[in-house]
Amino acid sequence: MRWWQGFLFVWMTATLVAGFVYAPLAKKLYEYTRIIYFHIPAAWVSTVAFAVAGFEAARYLAKRDPVADLRSAGAARLGLVFCALATVTGMLFAKAMWGEYWNWDPRQVTIFFLLLIYGAYLTLRAAIEDPERRARVSAVYALLALVTVPFLMFVLPRLSAFTLHPEPIVNRAGKLEMHPRMFGVFLSSTGAFTVLFFWMLSLDVRAARASRVERPAEGAGKQEEIGLDRAARA
Amino acid sequence: MSGTTRPRPPGVLAGAAAIWTKEMLVEARARYSIGASIVFAAVTLAVLSYTAGPQARRPETAAVLLWMVLLFSATASLSHAFGREVEGGTWDLLRHAAGPGEVLLGKWLAGATVLVAVEALVLAGGALLVAPPVGDPAGLAAVLGAGTVTLAIGLPVVAALLAQARHHGGLAAALAFPVLVPGLFAAVSGTRRALEGAWPGSELRVLVSFAGVLAIAGWRLFVFLWED
Questions:
Q1: Among A14, A195, B91, B203, whose CB has the most other CB atoms within 10 angstroms?
Q2: Which of B171, B210, B224 sits opposite A136 (nearest CB)?
Q3: In chain A, helix, strand, coil percent, each to 5?
């Protein structure tokens, strides 16, 4: 175990404990306040994952680096996991606060569509056999889908008058409406989740590279295997 | 100096006009896109308005009904925008005859033409079957125009992606809906407001900006789909 991995473990554990014993409760949210330190960071990481998937897709199209394609696909897969976590935790919160798991709040709808985008991206990858074509076409879709994310996350929820969601951390007036201790724990949790995502992404890419380099290059995948082999040696 | 002059390559607009003419001629012969759209629109409109009953006249229901019908019928026709070339083996010929910008612009224009024709029929059918009161006709027309442009821009780009996949039968909806959903939300919300009699200013801003961003992204990315 490397030092920073141990540090991340301590960091996440301390944040979890601080969420219960250090941060005060928010008005009207009672004990359910704790979910802020898990639900919002998960949603944040799913957005970061989308940005990384888009960035790596652009890098693939510019340089045709097969590792960039693996990073893009890995980020989308992990983004799907964190998006599902944000959805499930949001549903639990909705049930506790508003009595229903799902009530078509604009933010619930937008995160649901993020799930669909990630799902469509991975389905598209599965529908193309040739590795070079798969990488190129899915990179184009990742970038096209990236265009919708700011609209889904930031524009559409503000277009609707109906919402049960609490105000965003930074509200419409641009003011931060959170107790400083709560905000500290929230920032700590968001940072820890982000580091965890990048660690998981590096593991995913290393596993994908290792599995492809070990397999003998054959047929349509030969070009990619060679590229990965070179990349792995480099 | 020789007396012969080399033919000048046509500009993007001239090339796009040629592609649009080709698409319209193919459509006039086969009537595939418009036929599929109209049948789809008629079935969806009839089923949804029958199921909703008198509730379909309410602005929020009528707005959803209208855009569901338009989206499904547009997907039924425009998701095959590049399928004909791939299945007919004329993709390479098209690439030799025109550049990516000309082809994409021509496909956008052809898609918009088909959509306008389908929309006219859907609106006529909707007025006959549902007949919701329209509070602000100008606002409704503006939202319909901006929404049509959004669909006409987004769907051919998704069709170009689909043409690269082998088993793309069920992929059209899965790929197109998530990409188009911001435009669809704004169109539904704007239509509801126009039916209620309010000017859908915020929704139009979102629709126009989304269509613009989608057009720029599609234009830049289509080159990479054009390679193969």
A1: B203
A2: B224
A3: 80, 0, 20
